[in-house]
Amino acid sequence: MSAISDVPGIRVGHHQRTGDGWLTGVTVVLPPPGTVGSVDVQGGGPATHETDALDPTTLVGTVDAVVLTGGSAYGLVSAAGVQRWCEENGRGFAVSGGVVPIVPAAAIFDLGRGGDFSARPTPDMGYAAAAAAAAQEKGDDVERGNVGAGTGALIGRGRFKGGAGTASVTLENGVVVGSLAIVNAVGLPFGTPRASAGGQEAGRGGPLNTTLVVVATNAVLDAAECKRTASASHAGIARALNPSHTLADGDTVFCLATGAVALDRSDEAARQVSLITLQSAAADVVRLAILDGVAAAAAVSTPAGEYGAFGAE
What we know:
Distance between the termini: 34 Å
Number of strands: 16
Order of helices and strands: EEEEEHEEEHEEEEEEHEEH
Strand order of the largest sheet: 1-2-5-8-4
CATH architecture: 4-Layer Sandwich
CATH topology: L-amino peptidase D-ALA esterase/amidase
Largest sheet: 5 strands, mixed
Shape: globular
CATH superfamily: L-amino peptidase D-ALA esterase/amidase
Number of helices: 4
Structural class: alpha+beta
């Protein structure tokens, strides 16, 4: 499918609202139980939740779901709905009396793009996206474009539509690396004439943007190796978008490893080559997922006025 769902066990669900002032949504990446994860934030304006829990030095190394959401910092409440879904389904860190789901989240800025600044993702929308992910059949494709967290996404300082994109690659050793991107960037894809960049009106707060990425693999990685893979994957953002990682972007990459395929660790040289090959592939699929999201959004014609006062010119 050339999608993140090519990694066995990875499911993606979207939920969005449009019309009556709404233009936003939530995307949930639901991995199989026991998936190890970490995160790397390199943008200057992030809106995140529970990312500290993914530091390799902390207690819990597994991730129950990753939430990508619109609504800026307000939209992070959608993670509560995903936690509720996980708890109802027995997914989480086991504690006395129950479980505590580990559900990190990150948000893009899309406030007001449907016309109503207060129309932003809710816990119920997060729950619906998690349920949609769980309902996906094995091998289902991932919907692209203006869906989920990419519903109100824009790029190029608000001039053009962004959106959700995905890609994957299978390496010779059987390792699958996939990526899902929500593209809401200050920058534009390389090769776009800079004169097209334009700008939002002064007094509207300037460009408030972010590219959010989830990289997933079926390789066996520990939390530290996931952290390094997330860091290396940021190169894919820089290869796809110009500029990237600006003060006005909250660029964030999560890495998930399901642990189904062992890497060659027969000696130190083999271990290094295995990890470098995987991380290079991760950067490549991030670049492809970003371009896929931009292309999918561009293929849908939407009148600029639908974005409201904060939208495209």
